[in-house]
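Quick log. Single chain, no ligands specified.
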Amino acid sequence: MPLVVPGLTSSSSANSKTDDWANKLMGKKLGDETNEITFAKQDLPKETRVLKGDSAFTMDHKPERMNVHVDDDGTVHKVTHG
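-> predicted structure:
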């Protein structure tokens, strides 16, 4: 089991940024407006790519880029940065 010391072992800003976006997007679909079941695409950061399960995508690492993974029906199931 890893040692966790509050204030000493903390998530990086990238992880907290990812967690913040995951909280906003998880379980929602991307659309034209934000409401209880959708999130407006225009409100996503400029460096965002939306990835479907069968999408081809580059493996280059860009820490500022947000990756929004969606199911076949368009529901967000994962958010990462890189």
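Residues 7-11 have pLDDT under 50 and may be disordered.
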